[in-house]
Design brief:
583 residues, globular, alpha+beta, 18% helix, six-stranded parallel sheet, six-stranded antiparallel sheet
Length: 583
């Protein structure tokens, strides 16, 4: 996705970008609220920056075949001013004389306003014909959580926490207008059989129906990172997936790092590199991976001295898209979110509760899907090499340290130092993790599907299965329950005393959905012994599969040794098995 902040429409200037003189009567706020007065409102493109909005949107959608989707930032609380598309109709519906050029106040609890904004303006404006989603950058008033309480009142924005408590003042704050605005924006797409997404500030219980729920503009600190991890994990109890500004939104004056940007001819600022790295690493194992900083901050990873390490976090997240997408489909079926507390799976063990508490001292630990247990670093290092000492609980069964490759049998505790390039991460021994390569731009249905098996010599033979879920990535057809809307690929790894095999079986590709019928499979055995003797691959039914390329290689992020078999281009619904012998 490509997400544009407020700069896409006329409003506050950015460093190095000249302010477009406002048209008289435009961006006039309906309330005396700071963001609206500054020009954050409105729904029209800045034609000085985007002379042809539709051409730009086409470029986004078709860029290098990546099929990017576009998300635009809006501040609904500012209402509809007289220079917006179809203003006259919106004014008439609100009982306002259009000749007065008075703005139409925002009010999502009023059906007439919701229809004027959506069907009458956003969907009728040809400049938004290809806009996919909206980022509703405002929130409702109300208390926070315990000592993190946000101090604001329904009609006093001067006490708001940098926009967190802003809402449509036509609406009763106790009626949770943020839920209604999320419903309105989301349901318009669902009426077209398209999935909804409305990035917005949390609107209270019930917001889980309208993904995704955001924490807003927070100050960046180690404590904020710890709280966001805790919040995201325990929110699974009310089936809510949070997303955060990775790195934090605002830095205090004593922590930000200033730098002069010659392209902008202005001074911008960076996050402290160590904390930014650890925040991005935590974001790899959260529902949504996105950065966002206050102006003139720069989240661009290539501007940081530890760019190589930041890049690894991006690459790891990208590679796990098939795993996360499949886990999200499982969540749709079961109600158990990919990111959930340890006590869901290991409730008979006290550490599963202790490590799900904010009082764990920055050692929060949780499940991410059924193959991973992660405990992101959320404290600063006091070592010269940047390492952080961490004690991690190993759940029952066999688990492999993802970065070190060592096998541990739980329940037990392990403790070691994690270098800046390492994350406290356990992967279930014998599990198969579906992945993709960076070169494969098709995120949801990669042309080369990587099936990464975590090999380990366990005391007893083991078998572990997974399934890869793929669909068109956009429609609601998956809700019908039939297999005509999606494709499943099943993978099972069996580890015996002397032989290991991975069996793969794909469902037929349904007609009528845009999934490629052929692909290559890359079968990985991470940690396979050096003396392994490959006996190749065979088709389901026994015949040998020709043309499989075998090699020893190193895992991209961890450097761990692995045995890799790459099939030729075959039907995506193929059934085959690959394996090797070992002592």
């Amino acid at each position: 996705m490509l997400v544009l902040d407020y700069n896409w429409h006329p409003g506050p200037p950015s460093p190095g970008v000249p302010l477009v003189p406002p048209i008289e009567g435009c961006n006039q706020p309906t309330i005396a609220e700071g963001q609206c007065v500054a020009g954050f409102g409105g729904y029209q493109w800045d034609l000085a920056l985007f002379p042809d909005p539709v051409a730009f949107q086409r470029w986004v959608h078709n860029r290098s075949g990546a099929d990017l989707q576009l998300v635009l930032n809006i501040h609904d609380q500012c209402g509809i001013d007289s220079c917006q598309f179809n203003y006259a109709a919106a004014a008439h519906a609100a009982g306002i004389d259009p000749s007065s050029r008075a703005p139409v106040p925002c009010g999502f609890l009023q059906k007439s306003y919701a229809e004027s904004l959506t069907a009458g303006m956003l969907e009728a404006d040809p400049h938004h014909a290809l806009t996919d989603f909206w980022w509703e950058d405002y929130g409702l008033g109300g208390p926070g959580i315990g000592k993190y309480q946000v101090l604001c009142t329904a009609n006093d924005s001067s006490k708001s926490s940098f926009g967190h408590c802003l809402h449509c003042y036509q609406d009763d704050v106790d009626a949770k207008p943020q839920l209604w605005s999320a419903y309105v924006h989301g349901s318009r797409r669902e009426m077209k059989n398209l999935r909804s997404l409305t990035l917005g500030i949390y609107g209270g219980l019930g917001h889980h129906r309208y993904p995704g729920v955001g924490s807003g503009d927070v100050y960046a600190s180690w404590g904020t990172l710890q709280f966001e991890i805790f919040l995201s994990v325990t929110a699974a109890n009310v089936v809510t997936e949070w997303n955060h500004d990775l790195g934090g939104f605002m830095e205090t004056a004593d922590s930000r790092i200033g730098r002069f940007d010659p392209l902008l001819n202005a001074t911008t600022w960076l996050h402290p590199p160590e904390r930014y790295l650890r925040w991005l690493q935590a974001g790899v194992f959260q529902p949504i991976f996105r950065t966002h900083m206050s102006n003139p901050g720069d989240p661009s990873p290539w501007e940081y001295p530890n760019f190589g390490l930041l890049r690894q976090a991006y690459l790891l997240r990208n590679s796990l898209v098939p795993y996360i997408y499949s886990a999200s489909y499982d969540a749709y079926l079961t109600g158990v979110l990919p990111m959930h507390p340890l006590y869901y799976d290991f409730g008979a063990h006290d550490p599963a509760y202790e490590l799900s508490s904010l009082d764990s001292g920055g050692s929060l630990e949780y499940c991410f899907g059924d193959a991973f247990v992660v405990s992101p670093i959320s404290v600063a290092s006091n070592a010269s090499d940047g390492a952080v000492r961490r004690r991690m609980w190993v759940p029952p069964g066999g688990w492999v340290d993802y970065f070190a490759g060592s096998l541990h049998t739980g329940p037990c505790w392990i403790e070691r130092s994690y270098l800046p390039n390492e994350i406290p991460l356990l992967v279930k021994a014998g599990s198969v993790v579906p992945m993709k390569s960076l070169a494969d731009s098709k995120n949801l249905a990669p042309k080369r599907l990587i099936l990464s098996g975590q090999w380990a010599m366990l005391s007893e033979p083991s078998e572990s299965s997974t399934r890869v879920y793929e669909d068109d990535g956009e429609s609601l057809d998956y809700q019908g329950g039939g297999k005509s809307a999606f494709r499943l690929t099943h993978a099972t790894m069996s580890i015996g005393h002397h032989e290991t095999e991975m069996a793969v079986l794909g469902d037929p590709t349904p007609e009528g959905i845009e999934l490629e019928a052929t692909r290559r499979f890359e079968v990985r055995f991470v940690g396979a012994p050096v003396g392994a003797r490959v006996h190749g691959c065979r088709w389901q039914g026994g015949g040998p599969m020709a043309g499989v390329e075998w090699r020893r290689s190193s895992q991209e992020i961890t450097g761990l040794d692995m045995l890799v078999g790459l099939t030729p281009v075959v039907n995506a619904s193929s059934g085959f098995a690959c394996g090797f012998q070992h002592s």
